Model the fold of this input.
Amino acid sequence: MPDLEKLTQILTKNGFTVARFATGAQAAAYIDRQIDGKTVGFGGSMTLKELGLYELLSAHNTVYSHAVQGPSAQPLAAAAQVYLTSVNGLAETGELINIDGHGNRVAATIYGHEEVWFVVGVNKIAPDLEKALWRARNIAGPKNAQRLGKKTPCALKGDRCYDCDSPERICRVVSTHLRKPTSIPVAHVVLVEEALGY
Ligand code: SF4
Done:
């Protein structure tokens, strides 16, 4: 188990608002209490899906998720007050890594929202930036390509990233949050001591 106390201290120093929970259910209940009466955009995220956050938040917010509502929800999610996603890798040294193909998810974590929430299961945490990037590329990338049914070597073999030239390549942008972006007033990191998403 990574040292979540130390990671909390580093992320807090870097400007993030950090909360830590033993279970995904506790984390979901906390997020559900914190976000109320807002427009909320969802990035494509198995973590959010596993926590049932779309259903929870939709009861008292206006939620836009292209995974649920289709592509027309994407510009609405981009313009929402609050944006939720996960990460593809989180370094114990404090860096948050995301890989994107379309660019909407990465863009939304950098600019344009009153609040951004990163919900992170313990399986996403790696000892340092290099290993967090390795994880994002070689674990999250292939699993997402498989989930999306892409015709890429990683989706066929499911073992690692091949840095492919496939037209269906989903890995086109990598973002690294070194600190909280100044244009985002509040950026939350919710750490969960369970495996969530990939
Ligand atoms: S770059 Fe290509 S091979 Fe590597 S994870 Fe992304 S889609 Fe798969």
Summary: The longest strand covers residues 115-121. The pocket of iron/sulfur cluster is lined by residues 141-142, 145, 152-154, 161-164, 166, 169-171 (CB under 6 Å).
